[in-house]
Structure formats: structure tokens, C-alpha cells
């Protein structure tokens, strides 16, 4: 009897279990279903929101400079130029449209050489920025052209330091070409107007005048003048394990210029500016990387102009070569240069 009761009891309990299991199971299914619905709603909503944000961005903030998003469109001045204007009235002080810029780090000890360079470029209608690394600005007032130049002074800084801080691509976007030259260059055989027309014709985005005879410190065969050429873009030589041929695409055969007298198109400067490290002293390493900024065609858009050339006098200074106290910094740069050579050449 007890056994039967027990069995009945067990039976009914297991029945009840089964019943509640079924209820639980269907509850679970309902819940799971609800969860799916909620998840779908949530994801859909998120997608919708992203979409909307994207569209919103596309409509309202297209090409907006970072940080200016809250400004009404009409009052944004996205770019700038370096033109000098009279304090009274709004007329430009510069005589005609000046569309090219020469930036040069200078010290008063090199004033003869700088004077010659500045006169050349002023006569070709350039805007000129002088970066005074010796802090000496007043001594230049003797030159009649002094007031027509923009003077920036910071003691013991290099051309690249100045370029990084004062020639941001947005600031100099008005200029077609940017020349960033050393002060120790002889310009007897150089005419900036002719140089400009040559690089435009040849489509050179990054260029330099060839280094003429008697130049000291010719580091690379590529930049040495070829007297019979107008422009050259490559050399055919053997450098250590590298043999330069028609197929070579990079340094030391093609696709770079040295850092003593580079000339950048607007587009290539927008790229090259980003590569300038803060402590750049001499430019080694960066010169070999310039090919990245050649608008996709380093072997076509980078070249050396032979018919307009300069003579490099290699005066040790911050505007040109390097001073002895900078040599230690230079030896810090060299390993990265070597590493870069491996990266690109080999
Ligand atoms: C200077 O630039 C303005 C505006 O871009 C243009 O209208 C004018 O013709 C230019 N003048 C010269 C002399 O090139
Ligand atoms: C530079 O070349 C241009 C164009 O050939 C010429 O008009 C100008 O006189 C030259 N400037 C100098 C200083 O020789
Ligand atoms: C190079 O130097 C020699 C000797 O000093 C001189 O005669 C020649 O004119 C110079 N060449 C150039 C292009 O300056």
C-alpha cells in the first residue's frame, strides 16, 4: 500500500514537474523571443543613429577644420596667407600677386650671401621669410629690402624647426611653390623665374637646383649638376650593393632631393610638413622619404634642375650645414638614416 501510494505520489509529482517544466520552457521561449525582438530593435536603432550621424556630418560638416564644427559656415576662415597688409586700409603691401614663398634660416654672418639670394627672389616676385637663428634682426635693417621680408626670430633653431612651426600647410596654402633654402648657396647661375617655369613644365612636385661645380658637401650623386641636361630625375651608378638602373624607383638612384635647397609644390608640402620631426637638424633621413610626397610618382615628379643651378659653399651654420655643437645631435640622427636606407634601398 505504501508502495502504491508512494508510486502514485511519485507519479503525480513527476507529472507536476513535467507541467511546470513545460510552463517554464514556454516562458523561456517567450522571453528569448522578446530578447531577440529587443536586440533587433536596439541594433536597428543604433544603425539608424549612426546613419543619421553620418548623413548629418556629410550635410553640415563637410571639409570642416577640426574644432570649427560649431561655427556657422559663413564665418570660418579655413586657410591663411603670409601677406603683409597696411594697418590702415585693407590694401596689400606687396606689389603684385605673390604666389611663391622662400623661407630661409639666416645669421648676420652670412649677410653677403643672403643679400644676393633675397634680391634674386624678390625680383622674381617671391614672398620672403627670414628665420633668424642668431636672434639678430635689427642688423638686417641696413638692407633696403628688409621691410619687404617677414622676419621670425628664435635663437639656435634650424630651418626645419622654423618650417614646422611657421609654415603649416594651411597657413601657406596660398602659395604655389615653397622654397626652403640654406643661406650658404651661391646663386650666380640661378634665376627663380626660369626655375619656376621649368618645374611647372616638367611637372616636378619636389625639386632642387643642381649643385654646380666647386660645391662642397655633395652628399649624393643625384644632386650633382649634369651640364648638358635641363632636368634629370635619376643617376646610373653603383652605390655599394645597389646598382641604379632604368627600373630603380628610389634613393639613392631617384625620387629624392637633398635638404639644402628643396622646392615643394603646394600639394607635396602638405605631405612633407608632416614628416618633419621636432628636432630635425640636418634633414638626413627625411630627404630619402620625400618620395612618399611625390603625388604617387616619385620617379616622375621628383627631379633636379640642371640649367638653373646653385653652388653650395657649406658654411657651418644653422642656416646651412651644422655647427660643431650640433654634431652630437647629428650622430643621433645618423642611425635612423641608416635604418631608413635599409628600409628603402635594400
Ligand atoms: C591677382 O589675383 C586676383 C585674384 O586672384 C586676380 O583677379 C588678379 O587678376 C591678379 N592680378 C595679377 C596682376 O595677376
Ligand atoms: C630671369 O629670367 C627671366 C625670364 O627669362 C628674365 O625675364 C629675367 O630678366 C631674369 N632675371 C635676371 C635677374 O636675370
Ligand atoms: C670653380 O673654381 C674655379 C677655381 O677657383 C674657378 O675658376 C671656376 O670659375 C669656378 N666655377 C664656378 C662655376 O664657380
Your description of this structure?
By secondary structure, the protein is an alpha/beta fold. Helix content is about 35%, strand content about 15%. It contains eight helices and eleven strands. It has helices at about 1-60, 110-125, 160-165, 190-200, 265-270, 285-290, 300, 325-345; strands at about 100-105, 125-130, 150-155, 175-180, 185, 205-210, 230, 240, 240-245, 265, 300-310. The strands form two sheets. Strands 1, 2, 3, 4, 5, 6, 7, 10 and 11 form a nine-stranded mixed sheet that branches. A two-stranded antiparallel ribbon has the order 8-9. Helix 2 links the parallel strand 1 (about 100-105) and strand 2 (about 125-130). The longest helix has about 60 residues, at about 1-60. It starts with a helix and ends with a helix. Mean pLDDT is about 80; it is low at about 1-5, about 5-10 and about 320-345.
Amino acid at each position: 500500500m505504501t508502495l502504491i501510494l508512494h508510486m502514485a505520489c511519485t507519479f503525480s509529482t513527476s507529472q507536476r514537474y513535467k507541467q511546470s517544466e513545460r510552463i517554464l520552457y514556454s516562458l523561456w521561449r517567450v522571453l528569448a523571443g522578446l530578447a531577440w525582438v529587443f536586440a533587433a530593435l536596439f541594433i536597428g536603432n543604433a544603425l539608424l543613429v549612426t546613419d543619421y550621424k553620418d548623413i548629418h556630418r556629410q550635410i553640415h560638416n563637410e571639409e570642416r577644420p577640426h574644432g570649427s564644427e560649431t561655427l556657422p559656415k559663413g564665418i570660418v576662415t579655413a586657410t591663411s596667407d603670409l601677406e603683409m597688409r597696411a594697418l590702415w586700409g585693407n590694401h596689400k603691401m606687396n606689389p603684385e600677386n605673390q604666389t611663391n614663398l622662400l623661407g630661409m634660416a639666416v645669421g648676420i654672418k652670412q649677410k653677403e650671401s643672403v643679400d644676393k639670394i633675397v634680391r634674386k627672389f624678390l625680383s622674381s616676385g617671391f614672398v620672403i621669410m627670414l628665420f633668424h637663428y642668431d636672434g639678430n634682426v635689427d642688423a638686417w635693417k641696413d638692407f633696403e629690402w628688409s621691410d619687404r621680408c617677414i622676419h621670425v626670430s628664435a635663437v639656435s633653431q634650424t630651418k626645419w624647426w622654423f618650417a614646422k612651426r611657421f609654415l603649416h600647410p594651411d597657413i601657406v596654402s596660398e602659395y604655389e611653390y615653397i622654397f626652403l633654402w640654406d643661406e650658404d648657396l651661391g646663386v650666380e647661375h640661378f634665376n627663380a623665374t626660369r626655375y619656376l617655369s621649368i618645374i611647372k613644365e616638367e611637372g616636378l612636385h619636389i625639386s632642387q637646383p643642381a649643385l654646380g661645380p666647386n660645391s662642397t658637401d655633395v652628399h649624393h650623386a643625384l644632386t650633382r649638376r649634369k651640364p648638358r641636361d635641363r632636368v634629370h630625375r635619376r643617376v646610373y651608378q653603383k652605390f655599394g650593393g645597389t646598382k641604379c638602373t632604368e627600373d630603380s624607383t628610389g634613393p639613392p638612384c631617384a625620387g629624392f632631393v637633398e635638404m639644402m635647397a628643396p622646392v615643394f609644390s603646394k600639394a607635396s608640402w602638405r605631405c612633407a610638413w608632416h614628416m618633419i620631426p621636432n628636432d630635425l637638424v640636418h634633414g638626413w633621413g627625411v630627404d630619402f622619404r620625400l618620395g612618399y610626397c611625390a603625388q604617387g610618382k616619385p620617379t616622375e615628379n621628383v627631379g633636379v634642375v640642371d640649367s638653373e643651378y646653385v653652388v653650395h659653399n657649406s658654411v657651418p651654420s644653422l642656416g646651412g650645414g651644422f655647427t660643431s655643437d650640433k654634431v652630437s645631435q647629428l650622430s643621433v640622427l645618423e642611425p635612423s638614416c641608416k635604418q631608413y636606407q635599409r628600409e628603402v634601398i635594400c
